[in-house]
Amino acid sequence: MNIYDIAKEAGVSIATVSRVLNNKGTVSAATRARVETILKENNYAPSAIARGMVSKSMRTVAVLTVDIRVPHYARTAYTIEREFSRRGYEVILCNTGGDRAETLRYLQVVNQKQVDGIVLVGSVFDTICQSAEMEKLLSGVPVVLANGTLDLPNTYSVTVDDAYGISLAVEHLVARGRRNIYYIKDRDTDSAKAKRDGFLEVMRRNGLEFADHVLEACETLEDAIGAVQALLAQGIVPDGIVCGEDLTAAGALKALLRAGLRVPGQVAVVGFNNSDYAHLCEPVLTSVDNKPEQVALLCVQLLESRIERGEAYSSVVLQPELTQGETS
To answer: Which pTM was predicted?
Structure first.
């Protein structure tokens, strides 16, 4: 049964049925009750496309992330999906794998579905989306980046000051008398670069040696284990290690313990994200909390306001906090 059948059976116009469905306009209590009874008796479900044409909104948003299996992305994407769902939106979740071609394909798909807005989760999209074709696809709807930035109209950011977060970790170790501190960099993203730059700056500020103290591109647990083992094989035993991710910090911790080194007695370790990885380690990692749930909530608030009220907002920068564990 369609809306025309409902109107005919209720003895009202299609416009009246539409007003009842959308809870808009003036409809007498008796007429509303009659229409609602017929709708219920026939289990009528309005077409999302038809309602979208009337309201000029599909009440659908797309969330593009890198890999939903990664705890940090998962926490952010989950909170965004739950919060938008609570507000009456459908959410299309897309795993791009951090791949440019996959990102383009998903943007084309969600553009065809006429979504009301897009959230990009991860700083990797800063570089992936730098193309005329992607910028054109992103220009048609409001876009919010979780911990990323794009210089496009109608695009906003909710970011965490990653450089400051790393500086908190280094200052924490310096305050505990650590001087020979190394940094393990993870993915090659803008966020990872900001963390590395933050490490170099705070080491410089404290008058500490930092040349060759950055171990590059350790994306997995095994990468981090190998990087620390290679360092130890050279006869270098740092008294502090700061990592751009908890996963790499867990790898560093494993390598140190396998080598018979005491943590934090001989070497202190600090991770980043305050994720489940940090709490699964034994001892529990000290980690920088970059507040993914708060980032996600602000992304939802900003995008919903832009969609529903057309209000322009400034981008937001959050300050991370150090969470004390047992490795420092």
So the answer is: 0.79
